[in-house]
Prior knowledge:
This protein has helices at 11-21, 36-46, 62-72, 86-95, 108-119, 127-137, 154-164, 169-176, 180-193, 199-213; strands spanning 2-7, 27-33, 50-53, 56-57, 60-61, 78-82, 100-103. By secondary structure, the chain is an alpha/beta fold. It is globular.
Amino acid sequence: MKRILLVDDHPMVRERLTEVIHREADLTVCGEAEDRFEALEKMAASQPDLAIVDLTLKRSNGMELIKDIRAQFPAVPILVLSMHDELLYAERVIRAGVRGYITKQEATRKVMQAIRSVLAGDIYLSEKMAAQIAAAAVGAARAKPGLPLDGLSDRELSVFEMIGRGRSTRQIADELKLEMRTIETYRARIKDKLNLKDANELLQYAIRWAQSEGAG
């Protein structure tokens, strides 16, 4: 019996995933969490064979959680299940050690295919994303022009997402366990990279992006 931990801030998503997973005789959900800190506690307590993680979590950030899991539980594979744009995030999370990326819009059979692939030790990506990553690996040009946020580092993208979700500099610093001046430095870098003139323009752009990405 393979044990799976679900990390998502929407109870209905966790409920639906549990229902789908429990249809399989050899799979079970061993725990659920809605934020980074609860997830790490459940990881230690339940010792799962797979963690399914969303990128937008309550009071926390999925990318930071992924790095925590890779550092503290390196043997546990991670599958990302998210509303976020695959073209922006999939390559980032694979670089961070994730074994698969699938969007919440995919059919149930694709979700199970992703779970099975990752449990088998394979990497799961859509055909489109796998082709793009393969092309990049051999130095070929991207099939599409880069997205505006491609130039942000993982940490800068995390800060940008939190800004879009209405977090203050203090809240971001607390969540990431960093100094406020460090967050201000990230904000300045983000403004420069996105050619935004001031904090208000950054806020408006981040909010529009967060709304277009959905609730996570």
